[in-house]
Design a protein that fits this description.
The chain has helices at residues 16-29, 48-55, 92-103, 163-171, 188-192, 201-204, 232-238, 272-284, 305-308, 345-356, 373-377, 380-390, 409-420, 470-486, 501-508, 512-522; strands at residues 63-64, 85-87, 111-114, 130-133, 140-145, 152-158, 175-177, 211-218, 223-227, 246-257, 261-269, 293-300, 330-340, 366-372, 400-405, 429-435, 452-458, 492-494. It has 542 residues and is an alpha+beta fold. 45% of the residues are buried. The protein binds flavin-adenine dinucleotide.
Length: 542
């Protein structure tokens, strides 16, 4: 439960002796079950003198020293670094106070902002440090940026807000963010610290390409408003910056007007080359007359395609009984949508027929359903409910996400999908192409250097009782990474997981010096997001 704030006084951030005293006391506080740091004398089992000294700090932050195990959990369910405390901020000032506290800490104190905690390998955790529960920072507002023809509608959201709530608020005004993730119960700050990719990214770029402005707290405890025009270096550092430079407290995100309905298509292929050629042709069509969303997946042959058919949301099911007969070791599913307004219902069928006409899917192996726009965007939520019921949501998820250059994708398919993973991974295997020109190279996120690269998501669920185990899935991942390395494929891990600076140096490659300089500039004491294992607070950065 979130502790209740008891007074409105905030930390006097310039009061260095007070801060140092607080840091001296912090390690002692770890052992106490629950505590609100406040101007009033706290009731805790510290000595009276210590309590008086602590009260003199004039801190008024919602900090809990109990239930810290909740911040040692994430979606991966494999990594558990327990912090000493959890901060529930109610303003950016609260975050400034805690960052300044850590900045002057003699105890190598670190801080991790935690959004929805959907990381896999503890990226939002901070061993013995402080986790900031960003969800307690609230606020979503829709507005317009600029004037006249140049006006861009936007939504401004606190860093801990979930995309589902952002989408719902924007949709009240007939709009939605241009680029989203497949699953919307992720936080704004969490996905902007990575990239945020899905089937709209071919046209609008990842979520990080759709941000107008950020409010952040740097690793020095400064609040900065940054954008393309103001503190641009910090702005681009933070976008895809893996939480290394600053904590995102607010983000202004571009919106566009959206229809209320979608035609949702799945078309099946046995020939990988035909599948990828169609995908690449489709992502080259960037005008409004083409599809709005383009993804794809690999299906293992044993899979009952009807179990894969769309999980319907009060929809008219036009043709979902697909039965593909093929000798191919795996099948490929192209997934598309075309959005439309209800008043266009008479025309959409014809439009869809003409858009599908040039594609090379297996004869009549296509499934088309009608869904509400929001129902489609929120499609993974139903799956989540099922997985929660079956317990698999809480199982280990050794996921591997990669960006593979277009020139090597056939080779990747031949070895990875057709041989190694032809039996499936007990979870989705996604594959779809993206246009690199939609990624701004000033951002911290890195991609392969080719103009088109594929997002590949191997999203396996380990099973406690039946195969595959977490170890099997992790061994598979290692083999795939080894294959990419030995074949000199210019791949990048997306949502990267590495364990030391040398591996990160290889990941960022020629952009490593820039990443390191940015760290020195904005978080010189390496306080932020220690769970990414890029920099260590105990080692001096220079
Ligand atoms: P957290 O796990 O809480 O944090 C991730 C990192 O960001 C940590 O290092 C943390 O310290 C840092 N961070 C968090 N908040 C802030 C902040 N406000 N300021 C600065 N740093 C911060 N990704 C996609 O791109 N597309 C998808 O379609 C997609 N689907 C997914 C579906 C599921 C079911 C899951 C579990 C994940 C999916 N992801 C997808 C991955 C997801 O984008 C990342 O795991 C992302 O980090 C999750 O956001 P979060 O709020 O849970 O972040």
């Amino acid at each position: 439960m979130t502790p209740r704030r008891t007074s409105s006084t905030t930390i006097p951030t310039a009061c260095l002796p007070c801060i140092l005293l607080g840091l001296y006391l912090l390690p002692f506080l770890r052992s106490f079950p629950y505590f609100i740091v406040t101007a009033a004398t706290p009731s805790c089992s510290l000595s009276k003198e210590n309590c008086r000294e602590l009260a003199a700090l004039n801190l008024n932050l919602n900090i809990s020293f109990s239930n810290t195990a909740t911040a040692a959990q994430d979606f991966g369910h494999m990594h558990h670094d327990r912090p000493s405390a959890i901060l529930y901020p109610s303003s950016a000032q609260d975050i400034v106070a805690i960052v300044k506290l850590a900045y002057f800490s003699p105890n190598n104190l670190t801080i991790a902002a935690k959004g929805a905690g959907h990381s896999i390998y503890g990226q939002a955790q901070a061993l013995h440090g402080i986790v900031i529960e960003m969800s307690s920072l609230k606020g979503i507002e829709v507005g317009v940026h600029g004037f006249g023809e140049a006006a861009v509608p936007f939504v401004e959201a606190s860093g801990g807000e979930l995309w589902i709530d952002v989408v719902k608020e924007a949709m009240k005004k007939g709009m939605a963010p241009r680029s989203l993730t497949d699953y919307l119960y992720l936080s704004v700050g969490g996905t902007l610290s990575n990239a945020g990719v899905s089937g709209q990214a071919f046209r609008y770029g990842p979520q990080i390409s759709n941000v107008l402005e950020l409010e952040v707290v740097t690793g020095k405890g400064e609040i900065v408003i940054c954008s393309e025009h103001q503190h641009a270096d910090l702005f681009y550092s933070v976008l895809g910056g893996l939480g290394q430079f600053a904590i995102i407290t607010k983000a202004k995100i571009c919106l566009h007007h959206v229809p209320t309905k979608v035609k949702w298509v799945r078309a099946y292929y046995s020939d990988f080359s035909a599948f990828t050629k169609d995908q690449e042709m489709l992502i080259s069509q960037e005008n409004e007359n083409s599809f709005d969303y383009i993804e794809g997946s690999v299906l293992d042959k044993g899979k009952d395609l009807n179990s894969w058919k769309m999980e319907s949301h009060s929809i008219e099911d036009l043709n979902s009984n697909v039965t593909v007969e093929s000798d191919a070791p795996v099948l490929y599913c192209l997934e598309l949508t075309k959005a439309y307004f209800v008043h266009e219902s008479n025309l959409i069928g014809k439009k869809l027929t003409s858009l599908l006409e040039p594609l090379h899917y297996l004869p009549s192996q296509i499934s088309i359903i009608d869904a509400s726009y929001l129902g489609f965007l929120d499609r993974v939520h139903d799956k989540e409910r099922d997985l929660r019921k079956s317990g698999l949501w809480y199982a280990p998820h050794p996921w591997l996400n990669l960006f593979i250059p277009k020139s090597r994708i056939i080779e990747f398919d031949a070895w990875v999908f057709k041989q190694q993973l032809s039996g499936g991974i007990n979870g989705p295997m996604l594959i779809y192409p993206l246009n690199r020109n939609k990624w701004d190279s000033r951002m911290s996120a890195v991609t392969p250097s080719e103009d088109i690269f594929y997002a590949v998501g191997l999203l396996g669920y380990a099973s406690p009782r039946t195969a595959p185990t977490a170890k099997t899935l992790m061994d598979q991942n290692s083999k795939i990474l080894y294959f990419c390395k030995t074949k000199s494929i210019d791949y990048k891990q997306y949502l990267p997981h590495y364990v030391n600076e040398d591996e990160w140096r290889i990941h960022f490659d020629r952009l490593w010096p820039r990443f390191r300089e940015r760290k020195l500039r904005y978080d010189p004491k390496a306080i932020l997001s220690p769970g990414q294992r890029i920099f260590s607070r105990s080692k001096t950065l220079s």
